[in-house]
Amino acid sequence: SLCGSLSGRDTDKAKLCGLVPIFTELGDGRAVYFEGARRVLILKKLYAAPLDTSKFIDAAPMRYYESDGVHKMYVCEIVTALEE
């Protein structure tokens, strides 16, 4: 509930939750996940672009973009999957 209620711009949510980051050389060498994760997907980014708000079929998500910029959309290849 903490991560869903605070902005990552203003707060170090991982630190507040006690999450321990693990850095790996898998993927493009910049992958990070958290200790205790049961499943982790290591991805290679293939494409990135800002969402085009004019393409929304349902206008409901627009309420998230009224004051801030839009999210970036990524297309990725799964390089490896880790499972506890």
How is this structure best described in words?
- There is one protein chain.
- This protein is mostly beta strands and 84 residues long.
- It is 11% helix and 38% strand.
- The chain contains 2 helices and 4 strands; from the N terminus they run ααββββ.
- The chain has helices at 2-5, 13-17, and strands spanning 21-24, 31-34, 39-50, 72-83.
- The strands form 2 sheets. The protein has a two-stranded antiparallel ribbon. It has a two-stranded antiparallel sheet with strand order 3-4.
- β1 (21-24) and β2 (31-34) form a beta hairpin.
Describe this structure in a few short sentences.
By secondary structure, the protein is mostly beta strands. The protein is built from two helices and four strands; from the N terminus they run H-H-E-E-E-E. The protein is 11% helix and 38% strand.
